[in-house]
């Protein structure tokens, strides 16, 4: 009779959790545990409900109790790892995922999450090995191929990265971030037009993706297609106005086109977002020199050299501005 009651309370708790009535679910699991304190499944379910409410430490304590009773409950090890990840305790999370995979080697979610954490910790070879295992277990998991490709790109293994992105896109052709990452890898290999084609595919899927527009502008600049690059940066800035690099890059193109006043506006916008960006201050000085506002230019070059005393081009720019100022003073 007692065994029936504890199971009934546990089942009721699961029903409450499915209905998103988490407090009632926890109360039901507590009743099950009062009847049998060694009911591992109830401790596990209680941990999940506590997690749903954001009580992460308490949830981990419940999972720990479940695992004391049943050390091979791989779902508890996995969920414990997820919570430790959320609490920014990556090494402990990885240990939990390792325990999951020791018990259940084909549990690809734990393998994927472990790969993400290893990547964040800079343990790239281990992370790639984890992603390799992910796509071995589940070759139809597009995000596994995507993350694997990103990490291979980070390791300058661009050909392998593109192959990984292509596998992801065969499975899910509308993965916008994968088209962008593929474009970046192609760009690194010098295949610039192919990179543009990838960015265009990304934009066709999501025309409001600022990363696609930004990266497209960068590659168009390398191709010398400056007006198109400006158009791309216009969209990137419209969608993500707080990305100072986009302001710097668009300003640099305007500077090349001798549109000094417009370039100055962009460099000022970049500096407002990031007051310590050397390139913005340096190019601001160049724009001011082009406008013959030499004293302001000298101040900009001085600020550049305060940030980076070894920025030799800033010293040269300052000398040009001083030379431009001398005839005016005479």
Short description:
The protein has 19 helices and no strands. It is mainly alpha-helical. It starts with a helix and ends with a helix.
What overall geometry do the principal axes of the alpha carbons give? elongated
Pattern of helices and strands? HHHHHHHHHHHHHHHHHHH
Q: Provide the helix percentage.
A: over 70%
Broad structural category: mainly alpha
The share of residues in extended strands comes to under 5%
Low-confidence stretches: none
CATH class of the domain at 156-240: Mainly Alpha
**Overall average residue pLDDT:** 96
Major sheet details: none
Specify the number of helices.
19
CATH fold-type name of the domain at 156-240: Serine Threonine Protein Phosphatase 5, Tetratricopeptide repeat
Extended strand count: 0
Tell me the distance between the termini.
105 Å
The CATH superfamily label of the domain at 156-240 reads Tetratricopeptide repeat domain
CATH architecture descriptor text of the domain at 156-240? Alpha Horseshoe
Nearest-angstrom radius of gyration? 28 Å
Overview of the structural elements:
This protein has 330 residues and is mainly α. Among the domains are: 156-240, Tetratricopeptide repeat domain (Serine Threonine Protein Phosphatase 5, Tetratricopeptide repeat); 259-330, Tetratricopeptide repeat domain (Serine Threonine Protein Phosphatase 5, Tetratricopeptide repeat, Alpha Horseshoe), CATH 1.25.40. 80% of the residues lie in helices and 0% in strands. The chain is built from 19 helices and no strands. Helix 6 (90-103) packs antiparallel against helix 7 (108-120). The mean pLDDT is 96.
């Amino acid at each position: 009779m007692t065994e029936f009651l504890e199971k009934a309370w546990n089942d009721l708790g699961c029903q409450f959790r499915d209905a998103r009535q988490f407090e009632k679910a926890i109360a039901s699991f507590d009743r099950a545990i009062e009847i049998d304190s060694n009911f591992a499944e109830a401790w596990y379910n209680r941990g999940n409900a506590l997690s749903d409410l954001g009580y992460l430490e308490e949830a981990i304590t419940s999972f720990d109790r479940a695992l004391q009773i049943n050390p091979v409950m791989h779902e508890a090890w996995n969920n414990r790892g997820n919570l430790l990840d959320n609490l920014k305790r990556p090494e402990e999370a990885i240990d939990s995922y390792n325990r999951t995979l020791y018990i259940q080697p084909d549990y690809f979610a734990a393998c994927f999450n472990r790969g993400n954490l290893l990547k964040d910790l800079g343990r790239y070879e281990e992370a790639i090995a984890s992603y390799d295992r992910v796509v071995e277990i589940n070759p139809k998991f597009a995000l596994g191929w995507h993350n694997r490709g990103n990490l291979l790109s980070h390791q300058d293994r661009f050909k392998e990265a593109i192959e990984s992105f292509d596998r992801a896109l065969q499975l899910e052709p509308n993965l916008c971030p994968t088209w962008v990452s593929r474009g970046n890898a192609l760009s690194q290999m010098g295949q610039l037009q192919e990179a543009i084609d990838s960015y265009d595919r990304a934009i066709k899927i999501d025309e409001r993706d600022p990363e696609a527009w930004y990266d497209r502008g960068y590659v168009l600049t390398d191709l010398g297609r400056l007006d198109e690059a400006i158009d791309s940066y216009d969209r990137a800035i419209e969608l993500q106005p707080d990305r100072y690099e986009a302001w710097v890059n668009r300003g640099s193109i305007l500077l090349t086109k001798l549109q000094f006043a417009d370039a100055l506006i962009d460099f000022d916008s970049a500096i407002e977002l990031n007051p310590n960006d050397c390139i913005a201050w340096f190019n601001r000085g160049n724009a001011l020199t082009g406008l013959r506002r030499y004293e302001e230019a000298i101040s900009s070059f001085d600020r550049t050299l305060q940030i980076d005393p070894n920025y030799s081009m800033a010293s040269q720019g300052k000398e040009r501005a001083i030379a431009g100022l001398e005839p005016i003073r005479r």
